[in-house]
Write a structure and sequence with these properties.
chaperone; elongated; unfolded protein binding; 5 helices; HSP40/DNAj peptide-binding domain; four-stranded mixed β-sheet; UreE_N_sf
Length: 160
């Protein structure tokens, strides 16, 4: 099985590559197994440096390249009569710290009926759709942020 171990910032235009579609959940992991679009099973054991964005490239130790695309998954799609209503919904959803994907005409989040009801209560439409999920980086960057806070607290306690 091919194991991809490195992330690439960019690739030469002429370099060939395979393609894999991965859910948001898998793209957050540094280790996973997947099946390429051509049916080949692969593994990944990547440096832990955050999410694989759609369109990013990873490589095996001997230079075989793989492009990672966001797979369409079940999401809640929020649409609104006006941009201001959409802005209001983004604010309220952002306050709940859920991964949220923003587009000029819609918001997307992972299925959650409590949040869907809250948004509908604000007068917006919520529909379940199949769509690639590429949320804003704030909500899931929280993990590293929490570690920093706990180490600052630990340092603080160590000195007192």
């Amino acid at each position: 099985m091919k194991i991809y171990t490195q992330r690439l910032d960019n690739i030469a235009v002429e370099q060939p590559f395979e393609v894999v579609e991965l859910s948001f959940d898998t793209r957050q992991k540094s280790r996973f197994r997947a099946t390429l679009n051509n049916g080949t099973d692969i593994g990944a054991d990547l440096p832990r440096t955050g999410i694989l964005r759609s369109g990013s490239f990873i490589a095996t130790p001997n230079g075989e390249i793989l492009r990672v695309d966001a797979k369409a998954e079940r999401l809640m799609c929020v649409t609104a009569p006006t941009q201001f209503d959409l802005l209001k919904a983004a604010y309220h959803l952002g306050n709940r710290h859920v991964p949220l994907m923003l587009t000029p005409t819609a918001l997307y989040f992972e299925p959650d009926h409590v949040l869907a009801e809250m948004v509908e209560g604000l007068g917006l439409a919520v529909n379940e759709v199949e769509h690639p999920f590429e949320p804003e980086s704030g909500a899931y960057a929280q993990h590293s942020h929490d570690h920093r806070l706990s180490s600052i607290k630990a340092l603080h306690h160590a000195h007192h």
